[in-house]
Amino acid sequence: MTEPHDSLILHFIVRAFMVPFIIVFGIYVLVHGEASPGGGFQAGAIVAAAFVLARLTLGREHAVNRFPTRVLIWTASLGMAVYLLAGVVPLFFGANFLDYSQLPVGWFNNIATHDETLRARGIFIVEFGVFLAVLGTLGILYDYLTERYLDD
Amino acid sequence: MIEEIAARFPYWMCAALIAVGLFGMIQKRSLVKKLIGMNILQSAIILFFVAGGLREGATLPILLEQGAGNADAADYVNPLPHVLMLTAIVVNVAITGVALAFLVRIHREFGSLDEESLIEQVRQ
Amino acid sequence: MRWLTLAFLISFQALFIYVSLDLPDRADPNAPANVHLSPEFVEQGEKEIEIPNLVTAVQADFRSYDTLGETLVIFTAGLCVLLVLMRGSRTDDRAP
Predict the structure, then answer these.
(1) Domain boundaries, chain A
(2) Distance of CA A120 to CAs A41, A126, A146, Å?
(3) A contact chains, 3+ CB pairs < 8 A
(4) Contacts with C37 from chain B: Cβ below 8 Å
(5) Which of A50, A129, B71, B75 could form a Cys-Cys staple with A82, CB 3.0–4.6 A?
(6) CATH of B2-56+76-123, one of 1.10.760.10, 1.10.287.1490, 2.40.50.100, 1.10.287.3510
């Protein structure tokens, strides 16, 4: 239950520099995780760190009201649903559970400028689901453990 | 003899960290300190696996040349311990979160996190 | 009690050192995990999945059941925290 500090420097640094750059770095770790160290878990943890930083310093109207706890719960559920759908959808195309090579995402290669195999696309879909699930869960943990939910 | 010891010394240090974590879990009276001991133990196990996955003359398991089809397995370390520990770290976060939630609830119900006083309150 | 704990931990350490004499050397290129397991992952991962990061490949494709269960674990942990700390449950009535 910490109150935000009404410091102009703190608000400027956090809102203009730290939170946007941390979120951009987390997205980079997510989408570049197939070619360099990274992945869904790490990206989720980094973006959740940005959210926690905003909640620690900016107070209610700038952090919590823009991204309230119920949105985080929906985010975690959406990530879990993405992962489960990536597992269930190949069943309708005659493949096994979680067999990414049968996912109907081949049209994406026509849009993108380079080809990738369907298994690599499936890995990215799964990593995105893991990213959303970890992000939402860490936000839920912080919000409930610090009792920010009380007058939500 | 000295090579034998040097080749296993990181394992022994991991075991010492496990012992530190177990000491915290067994001996300390505060539940928060028990939780921190559990975290030390989990970190020690992660260190043990990562140290065991090392391989001399190899680099990290990211292919330098994609699609060439000539990757030499001797150039890359075993990716399996890294994968297992990546999942273990996230499960550790989940365990710590649930344990902290239980501690908050216990403190809300009993007003204390001390083991002895909790046992006395439960016995009454 | 303290001496009992210390004796237990010292015996644990001694047992671990005794067992570790049978482990392969650290960073041994000829350890069983490096000879039998690692080439399988490296070659299969390069041939079938075509992404450079083998850790991601093994995690999300070869062991995707594992990752699915593990994501379920952390999601369940979030729901568990939500339910344990939720206000207005019945046990809050008799709390001081």
Answers:
(1) 8-151
(2) 17, 10, 39
(3) B, C
(4) 78, 80
(5) A129
(6) 1.10.287.3510
